[in-house]
Write a structure and sequence with these properties.
The complex is a heterodimer of chains A (about 270) and B (about 425). Chain A is an all-alpha fold. Chain A has helices spanning about 5-35, 40, 50-60, 65-95, 100-110, 115-130, 135-140, 150-160, 165-170, 175-185, 190-205, 210-215, 220-230, 235-255, 260-265. Chain B folds into two domains: about 30-145 and about 300-350, D-Maltodextrin-Binding Protein, domain 2 (3-Layer(aba) Sandwich), CATH 3.40.190; about 145-300 and about 380-420, 3-Layer(aba) Sandwich (D-Maltodextrin-Binding Protein, domain 2). Chain B has 17 helices and twelve strands. Chain B has helices spanning about 5-25, 40-55, 70-80, 100-105, 125, 150-155, 170-185, 195-205, 220-235, 245-255, 270-275, 315-325, 330-340, 355, 365-375, 385-400, 405-420; strands spanning about 30-35, 60-65, 90-95, 130, 135, 135-140, 145-150, 190, 240-245, 260-265, 280-285, 305-310. The longest helix of chain B has 23 residues, at about 5-25. Classes of the chains: A mainly alpha (about 270), B alpha/beta (about 425). The interface of A and B includes residues 134 and 217 of A.
């Protein structure tokens, strides 16, 4: 190996280490914070402390943890499932079935992506209130199930779905819905996995809309609880960090479980 | 046709029973309260609820807590949508924002003028929630200000509590520099992006960013100019303070013993007492502006009050609850003062045991009694609708001012920015 290539590799290593440190440090700091008192944290202590148990105990005293996590998981899982079902079907349909108006409708959909949520919030609120479904899981999930971004994502990925497979399935006498369920979904599993991670994270971290439609303590998600703990004259940062660790764990778990498929899916692979 | 009389009587009896059941469930009200800070506001509210429901077992009152910004987003969305479903019966609003809600959503809040005896509350808390002669709030926690200082460090520099009575900000700066020279620790932690100092100074002289009619009171306001000059002079004296950024950094500095004191609202007491430094702290009156007419030592920072929404189905119970406990139970205020460090604006509470007790943490001073005295002297001002906007305009000028910029030009720039935003 020549000197220059050694130097290049060394520099690259250094840059990667720096990038890794910048990405991982907040996580470390969050975990260290969960074991410290508020004063240690504001005093700039970065090492692990001995206040973990009191912080956890206090969190469980203040918050109905099982109920809050059930809410968050239910909303994230059901939201992911229904969004995947509806958006993948729509994306598949947009790509496979040809019609004169198809691209115009699709263009219209993409245009709607540019409407900010803040502009739709009050009309949505009025609609949901009139429908009598305020303060329900349905109210949180419903506005997101036909996700334009996901429809677009599935349509793009469907372009890589081999038409031979579809033709063969038709020859074998499968109906259109059977082709979708028995052929398309298994073939596109990497695409689904990537979408699943994105959707799980979006639903798990959803904030503004749940805040608006949820009315009672029993329905709150973990994100709302974390935010509520953070407003005080003298915030208890140790407690907040415990809540943050617990709120972060599920997304980390889901990501690592589906990591391989996520990378495949983002690269647009069909296996 | 002949009725079977006994059976008919049974049916009638049942019907009466059912209607009685229906009636009693109509009496039993469900009151919802929105607030932020579950350990402070929420805990105080829960104590009040426990007291009220002990006497009214049929009623349930539930506290739902959100982050403060979230509560405001939710409240604004719902009030703007015109949908009353899901609105609470009682909501906590920060005092600086009260006028904004009362003026932006007329009719949304229930006037309590005829129901609550406001002479029992600190004047300044009543006036900030009054619009067109109607008062809407049940005043809750006070932000009466004080100068919290490390008595051990000040003693090292040769100052005792008597040396901190009736001083000006200039004298405060001299003391701070002496403390730094003797102990190596700066007097305060200060954040250039937090205009709290401005607000405390302005109100201590009975002035604010706005006139009573809501117009800006910036250019030509001598108190505004004096306050800005004083604050900038402090920021231009690096030995006086430790520069911090953000709330955690700011509170961390005095809670960890890096600086010798803090001037702030009474609600900081709980945080300061959580530090294992008993006997090493004291509380003095806020320093006053020099050469300003009407300047005093009493001011306010923060604080919030309860409001009743006029759309609430359980409105009457909500008002009765606030009236019975929050405007009638002095013992309740002793409990939340000890439990949460929540210092109420209910004046009769000061006669109670907890309010007159001395505190060893603060060297045996009767700190609460002092705060009560200062609270009664806070001048009432009109917080207006755009306090946050003016804060932002001031903070934007601070770096240039600290670098030696002209005060008059900065005031003109602040005024211009405010005029643009509030038109």
């Amino acid at each position: 190996m020549s000197l220059t290539s050694k130097l290049t590799s060394l520099l690259m290593q250094a840059a990667l280490w720096l990038a890794a440190f910048i990405s991982v440090f907040p996580f470390y700091w969050m975990i260290a914070g969960a074991t410290n008192t508020a004063n240690d944290i504001t005093g700039g202590k970065f090492t692990l402390g001995s206040n973990l148990i009191p912080n956890i105990t206090k969190f469980f005293e203040l918050v109905d943890v099982p109920r809050i996590f059930f809410n968050s998981f239910f909303v994230a899982i059901a939201g992911t499932f229904f969004t995947l079902a509806i958006s993948s079907l729509a994306g598949y349909g947009f790509e496979i079935f040809r019609s004169k108006t198809r691209d115009r409708v699709f263009g219209g959909l993409l245009l709607m992506l540019s409407v900010p949520f803040a502009a739709m919030m009050i009309p949505l609120f009025v609609m949901f209130s009139a429908a009598g479904i305020m303060n329900t899981y349905l109210a949180i999930i419903l506005p997101g199930v036909a996700s334009i971004f996901m429809i677009f994502y599935f349509r793009q990925n469907t372009k890589a779905f081999p038409s031979e497979l579809r033709d063969a399935a038709r020859m074998d006498g499968l109906k259109e819905w059977q082709i979708f369920i028995k052929i398309y979904i298994p073939v596109m599993r990497s695409t689904y996995a990537a979408a699943m991670i994105i959707l799980f994270m979006t639903n798990w971290n959803a904030y503004l809309w749940p805040l608006i439609v949820l009315q009672t303590n029993e329905m709150k998600t973990i994100q709302l609880v974390v935010a509520s703990l953070a407003t005080a004259y003298t915030p208890d940062y140790g407690l907040i960090m415990v809540a943050n660790v617990l709120a972060t764990l599920p997304t980390i778990l889901v990501f690592f479980l589906l990591q391989r498929r996520f990378v495949e899916g983002m690269l647009g692979g069909v296996k | 046709m002949r009725f079977n009389t006994p059976r008919l009587r049974n049916v009638a009896g049942m019907a009466t029973g059912i209607s009685l059941l229906a009636l009693s469930s109509a009496w039993a009200a469900d009151v919802t309260v929105w607030c932020w800070a579950p350990e402070f506001n929420g805990a105080a509210m829960n104590e009040a609820i426990a007291r009220y429901t002990a006497a009214h077992p049929g009623d349930t009152i539930t506290v739902v807590d959100f982050a403060k910004g979230d509560l405001e987003t939710k409240l604004q969305t719902q009030l703007a949508s015109g949908t009353t479903e899901g609105l609470p019966d009682i909501v906590l609003i920060e005092d600086y924002g009260a006028q904004k809600y009362l003026l932006s959503f007329p009719g949304a809040f229930e006037p309590l003028t005829d129901k609550i005896d406001y002479s029992q509350f600190a004047d300044y808390k009543v006036s900030l929630a009054t619009v067109d002669g109607q008062t809407y709030s049940l005043p809750f926690d006070s932000g009466v200000t004080g100068l919290f200082y490390r008595s051990d460090l000040l003693a090292e520099a040769g100052y005792d509590s008597a040396a901190l009575q009736d001083i000006t900000w200039e004298q405060m700066m001299e003391i701070g520099l002496a403390v730094k020279a003797k102990t190596g620790k700066p007097m305060f932690s200060m954040d250039q992006a937090d205009a709290g100092t401005m607000r405390m100074m302005l109100q201590s002289a009975g002035s604010w960013y706005f006139n009573d009619d809501g117009s800006a009171n910036i250019v030509g306001n001598p108190v505004f100019k004096a306050s800005l000059e004083t604050w900038v002079k402090m920021l231009q004296t690096p030995d006086l303070y430790k520069a911090v950024s953000g709330w955690g950094d700011y509170t961390g500095a005095f809670n960890n013993g890096d600086v010798a004191g803090v001037y702030t609202g009474v609600w900081m007491t709980g945080g300061i007492k959580g530090n294992n430094m008993s006997g090493k702290w004291g509380v003095a009156p806020l320093p006053k502006l020099s050469n300003v007419e009407g300047a005093g030592h009493a001011s306010n920072l923060g604080g919030s009050s309860w409001y009743v929404l006029s759309s609430g189905p359980a409105k009457d119970t909500a008002i009765d609850f606030l009236k019975t406990i929050w405007a009638g139970d002095a013992d309740f205020y002793q409990k939340i003062l000890v439990g949460q460090g929540a210092f109420g604006a209910y004046l009769p509470a000061r006669e109670g045991e907890a309010y007159s007790a001395t505190d060893e943490y603060f060297g045996g001073e009767a700190v609460w009694a002092n705060f009560s005295t200062w609270q009664a002297a806070i001048p009432g001002v009109n917080y207006g609708i755009f306090t946050n906007e003016v804060d932002a305009a001031i903070v934007a000028q601070i770096p240039a001012l600290v670098a030696g910029g002209s005060i008059d030009e900065a005031i003109a720039a602040i005024d211009a920015q405010v005029a643009q935003q509030i038109q």
